[in-house]
């Protein structure tokens, strides 16, 4: 099978540093490093040399050539009837893919041509109070999987039918009873239950079970045999990719213990332990099993978006999605403005790998203002993450004829990418004293997510001599990288105060420059009188309590520490320390008890 994503990534990287003609083969290279997102880990140094000026045009040609060859090779390999690789066919407004179509994400999605789950089936039954909600629509894949799972459990064990709750509205979109269920890929399944005599009985509703399997308010117990069989059938169904089976921690443990007791394969138990999961931003799901599947291939090729974990035992179709995106190249750079507009819209919906590179190389310089504006908008949403993309942005920023409305968005794009190569470009602009002050301020803002220790030395070298507005930005970057605050107003401080503070910074740097960044953060905690082992969840309440009173740069670092310790995803930055405090107070209040149980897993990032 062609590993196109890696091939194109390596080719783009080779192109970014090439000096030979584009026909020359590129040397083997390693993939680019991942974006620096965690404040708790030491950043890896990023390369500093800038390629010779003559290399950049050749690099762009090589990238373009690589994209062309990739599109041709993939097109020949995957020219499936339902997967047109011709731009005109893909963008035909009359084209209607067969079957159901899930678009967008589970929280911002829609559903077209849905499948319908019957109110009553041989092995399932929709809960009565849910029938009037008209939430019995989903993708064909999900509906069929529910029917197969219900049948498998019934044929293996007999007993009551599977009871079903919400799926989605006929056209998708928000439902009043959940923040998800918008794209036809979520379904709520009531738990199988046993009565006092141990007989399988249909549950009247979504019944809450406590951690030992007894129902609240009903003489029922959790039917661990059938519920595990249901989970096992879904996890092993080759027609779907299960992203999550949301369930309370206690009921999850009952099912896993049962799976071990009956001798289920170790790899299946390991998979179930990952996918069965108590949600962190919703009730614990002690009254139903919430099933979420990944995008079916045909839907992903139209703009269905997987949000969540990418389990290694599934194929995620990145190569096919990239193949479809590459086929849009003639439309992205052609002379038909309506076709280009549709191509950009479809690219946004598809959100493929290399979207930013395609926009940058094929639509950014459109002679039509409205198309260029649209390209600039999308670049900031889907930034290029290769070194070739970063160098192309550097080339545009160095143009004398760059439209002024494009300059700030290009810096925003570098910040959104947050790759070492993007930061390298922004750093070069920030410390170039020949550039206008406004330009250097934009570069400083683009570096707000750069937590690399190698920023410290050049900041200290430029801090005293920079104009007052830039001094403030440089100091802010210094605080963010080091998690240390000097309390000085660098725009108003006297020369003597600046020199004194700078001397203290240089002394600190000599002492700490060889230490990993995590130790900087540990010292920051010590400054807050927090003396605890790294990762001690018992200190989370204390960490959160410090947030409102901190300088924003320190609050950002403390938020990153909380995220690292808990495993909870959080925004890279907040508008204010108070916002960070509200976010973490709310989340920790819901998850404290679960997280402090030693047996509880960490929340998925």
UniProtKB/TrEMBL annotation:
GO terms for cellular component: outer membrane-bounded periplasmic space
Protein known as: Penicillin-insensitive murein endopeptidase
Matching PROSITE patterns: PROKAR_LIPOPROTEIN
Region feature Disordered, mapped onto this chain: 24-56
Source taxon at top rank: Bacteria
MF GO annotations: metal ion binding; metallopeptidase activity; serine-type endopeptidase activity
UniProt cross-references to Pfam families, sorted A to Z: Peptidase_M74
InterPro entries per record: Peptidase_M74, Zn_M74/Hedgehog-like
Leader sequence segment: 1-23
Keyword Lyase: no
GO aspect biological process, one term: proteolysis
Keyword entries, A-Z: Hydrolase, Metal-binding, Metalloprotease, Periplasm, Protease, Signal, Zinc
Biased composition (Pro residues): 24-35, 44-55
């Amino acid at each position: 099978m062609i590993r196109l994503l890696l091939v194109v990534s390596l080719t783009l990287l080779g192109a970014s540093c090439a000096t030979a003609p584009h026909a020359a083969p590129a040397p083997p290279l390693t993939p680019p490093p991942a974006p620096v997102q965690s404040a708790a880990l030491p950043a890896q140094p990023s390369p500093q040399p800038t390629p010779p000026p003559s290399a950049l045009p050749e690099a762009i040609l090589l990238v373009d050539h690589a994209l062309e060859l990739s599109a041709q090779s993939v097109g020949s390999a995957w020219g499936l009837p339902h997967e047109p690789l011709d731009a005109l066919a893909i963008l035909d407004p009359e084209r209607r893919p067969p079957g159901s179509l899930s678009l967008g994400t589970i929280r911002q999605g829609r559903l077209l041509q849905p499948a319908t789950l019957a109110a009553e089936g041989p092995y399932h039954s929709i809960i009565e109070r849910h029938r009037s909600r008209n939430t019995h629509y989903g993708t064909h894949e999900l509906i069929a999987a529910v029917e197969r799972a219900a049948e498998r459990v019934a044929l293996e064990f007999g007993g009551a039918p599977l009871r079903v709750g919400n799926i989605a509205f006929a056209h998708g979109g928000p439902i009043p009873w959940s923040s998800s269920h918008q794209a036809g890929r979520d379904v709520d399944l009531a738990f199988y239950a046993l009565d006092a005599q141990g007989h399988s009985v249909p549950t009247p509703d979504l019944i809450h079970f406590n951690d030992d399997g007894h129902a609240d308010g009903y003489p029922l117990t959790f039917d661990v045999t059938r519920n595990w069989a249901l989970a096992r059938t879904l996890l092993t169904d080759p027609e779907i990719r299960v992203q999550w089976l949301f369930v309370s921690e206690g009921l999850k443990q009952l099912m896993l213990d049962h799976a071990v007791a009956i001798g289920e394969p170790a790899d299946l138990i390991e998979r179930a332990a990952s996918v069965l999961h108590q949600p962190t931003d919703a009730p614990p799901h002690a009254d139903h099993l919430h099933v979420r599947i990944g995008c079916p291939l045909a839907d992903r090729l139209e703009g269905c978006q997987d949000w969540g974990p990418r389990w290694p035992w599934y194929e995620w179709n990145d190569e096919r999605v990239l193949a479809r995106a590459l086929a849009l190249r003639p439309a992205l750079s052609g002379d038909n403005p309506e076709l280009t507009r549709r191509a950009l819209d479809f690219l946004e919906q598809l959100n493929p790998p290399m979207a930013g590179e395609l926009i940058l190389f094929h639509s950014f310089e459109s002679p039509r203002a409205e198309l260029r504006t649209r390209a600039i908008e999308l670049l900031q949403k889907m930034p290029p993450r290769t070194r070739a993309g970063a160098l192309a942005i550097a080339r545009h920023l160095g143009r004398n004829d760059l439209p002024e409305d494009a300059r700030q968005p290009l810096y925003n794009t570098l910040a959104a990418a947050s790759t070492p190569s993007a930061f390298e470009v922004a750093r070069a602009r920030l410390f170039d004293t020949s550039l206008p002050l406004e330009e250097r301020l934009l570069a400083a803002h683009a570096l707000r997510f750069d937590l690399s220790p190698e920023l410290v030395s050049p900041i200290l070298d430029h801090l005293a001599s920079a104009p007052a507005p830039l001094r403030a930005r440089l100091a802010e970057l210094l605080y963010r990288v080091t998690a240390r605050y000097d309390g000085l107003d660098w725009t108003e401080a006297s020369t003597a105060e600046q020199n004194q503070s700078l001397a203290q910074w240089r002394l600190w740097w000599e002492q700490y420059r060889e230490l990993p960044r995590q130790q900087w953060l540990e010292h920051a905690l010590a400054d807050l009188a927090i003396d605890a082992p790294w990762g001690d969840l018992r200190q989370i309440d204390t960490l959160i309590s410090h947030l409102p009173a901190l300088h924003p740069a320190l609050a950002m670092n403390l938020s990153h520490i909380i995220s690292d310790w808990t495993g909870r995803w959080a925004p890279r930055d907040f508008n204010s320390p108070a916002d960070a405090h509200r976010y973490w107070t709310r989340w920790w209040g819901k998850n404290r008890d679960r997280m402090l149980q030693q047996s509880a897993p960490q929340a998925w990032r």
